[in-house]
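PROTEIN FOLDING TASK:
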Amino acid sequence: MKRVKMMLAVCAALFTIGSLSAQTATDVGKKFNAAAELINGKKFAEAIPVLQETIDMGVKVGPDALATVQNAQKLLPKCYFYKAMAAAKGSQFEAAVADLTKASEMGELYGDLSTANNAKRMISQVYTAMGASAFNAKDYAKAAEIFAKGYAANPNDTKLGLNLAMSYCELGLNDTTYMNKGLDVYKNIIALESKHSKYKADAATAKEKVVYYLMLNVPKLAEEKKYDEIMKLADHIVAIDSTNAQGNLLRLQTATNMKDWDKVIALGDAAAELQPTPELKSDAYFLLGAAYQNKENKAKAIETYKKVTAGGNVETAKAQITLLSK
């Protein structure tokens, strides 16, 4: 009989402990209010664990605490975001990235896509700040490593993309793998122009950089008389930007070196029209005139040579006109 009474006493004690530990919607509300007070005081780091406790408590309580849980879930990504901004302002970049990543994840988890997207954009900007020192010091290997992380988070950050592409291409001066990676990033930036006009300026910069880095290969290839490779390179430039004057003139010069007169004639007028100065236009027309001359089309050769009005080929063009007019 004593044993039964003892068991009943134990059960009563357990019930009492369980009753004391049970939490209600009111308790969840108090916890949420404590978090809100911290947020109002801009104590975002301190508010984060309190909000998480609110969510955990509310889930256990059930439907009665649902509204409070949802409010806590809305605030949690924002607290991580503002905590990250404070860290970034203090140049604590690694901590800022960690909190922005949490803000993005929490935002997606709890349906706050605005905060999630803002966090992703800020991640790339923080990485830009992190990589700036290495980039400015021309430590392109370190800069590329840092910028690549930010670019992965936000491929639409064209400013960071330009820095990453240049870092890769500078490394690629002695390594074609890096060069190709850099050119790929430039192409991605160029492609964004078709999505929104805000990318136009950076896309134009990317086009200029593609031409610059591809043209670096021309002197060596020309010295080795690898005209087929130069033509491929020139075609690559024109494929990226059909109105690029330098690429179009390079195709014309290369076709001339290859003595492909039909191709020179096919490309000549359009290439000449794209040139920005009288001297460059005249250079293009001189090559076109020579192509017509080699094809024994005297009339077209004379007509074209007459368009050579500036630069170093003027006297030679006049001499050819005299010769062809006999």
Notes: Residues 244-326 form a domain with the Serine Threonine Protein Phosphatase 5, Tetratricopeptide repeat fold (CATH 1.25.40). Residues 159 and 265 are 40 Å apart (CA to CA). The longest helix spans residues 66-89. The chain has 17 helices and no strands.
